[in-house]
Amino acid sequence: MKKLSFLLSIALIAPVFIFILAGCGTIQNLMIPYNEPPLPIFTHYMEVPDFLDREQQTLYRKAFVVYGAFWHGNDGVEYFPLKKGQEKILSDDDLALRVADLWEYEPELIINNAGYIESHGRYRDWSEFEKVNMVVFTPEYFEELNQASKKSDDGSGIIEYKHFLDFNDKLYYAPLKLERREGYAGVETDAFELISSSESEIKFNLIVYCKDDKGNLTEQPPNVFEIILTKTNNGWRFSKFYVGW
């Protein structure tokens, strides 16, 4: 079975993938706590930038989960634990089969020559999906992440479409293959380098190391990815983000 989505991606970098069930709130009213997304236990022990304050470090953990689930192989949207009272539409076996065959899965909706599948997970409503993204990303970056393109079937041009779609207030997604970086050493080896810091923006590098077949760090230069944290009217949000795998 190939590419079992975000769950297997996390399994490669952490021994346990246990989610903390969390309550809901709203972004519009910041006086009401918004505890999405639920964070796997290991994210509380993973390496995070020590030059960020505690609130910013929590935001980094949330962005790590959201980016990894939605924007680095988007079938991870199905694997969040359901909220209390949510109906379980797919059995565990049906979900595993669906994700395993995702790339050949029959589309339930076709728009602009892109095939979409309805989400049956925690974020099955568009408003909830949008909300959990907007709590960690700027609106502009969210829109940028959601833009996609591919060659037309006849090869005559490029088709623009969205990874995730609001259709009748429900969340649909176009399968996105996970392009994992070979030899990723794991979140426990991630390092961070501060580039600049001001009252309105923090820039830093995510430094990603690789390992060989024996599990030892290689001598090849690490991959370096710039991350940007921006101060907005709603607080700090990421305007650029990456994960290591």
Summarize the helix and strand pattern as letters.
HHHEEHHEEEEEEEE
Total number of helices = 5
Helical percentage: 10-25%
Q: Please report the total strand number as a whole number.
A: 10
- List low-pLDDT spans: 1-32
Q: What is the end-to-end distance?
A: 19 Å
Radius of gyration: 18 Å
Mean pLDDT: 77
Number of domains: 2
Alpha-beta content class:
alpha+beta
Strand order of the largest sheet: 1-2-6-5
The outline comes out as globular
Please, could you describe this protein's structure?
This protein is of the alpha+beta class and 245 residues long. It folds into 2 domains: 5-173, no CATH class; 187-240, no CATH class. 21% of the residues lie in helices and 23% in strands. It is built from 5 helices and 10 strands, in the order H-H-H-E-E-H-H-E-E-E-E-E-E-E-E. The chain has helices at residues 5-13, 54-70, 92-100, 126-134, 139-146, and strands spanning 109-111, 114-118, 147-151, 158-162, 164-167, 170-173, 191-197, 201-208, 223-232, 235-240. A 4-stranded antiparallel β-sheet has the order 1-2-6-5. Strand 9 (223-232) and strand 10 (235-240) form a beta hairpin. The longest helix is centred in the N-terminal third of the chain and has 17 residues, at 54-70. The radius of gyration is 18 Å and the shape is globular.
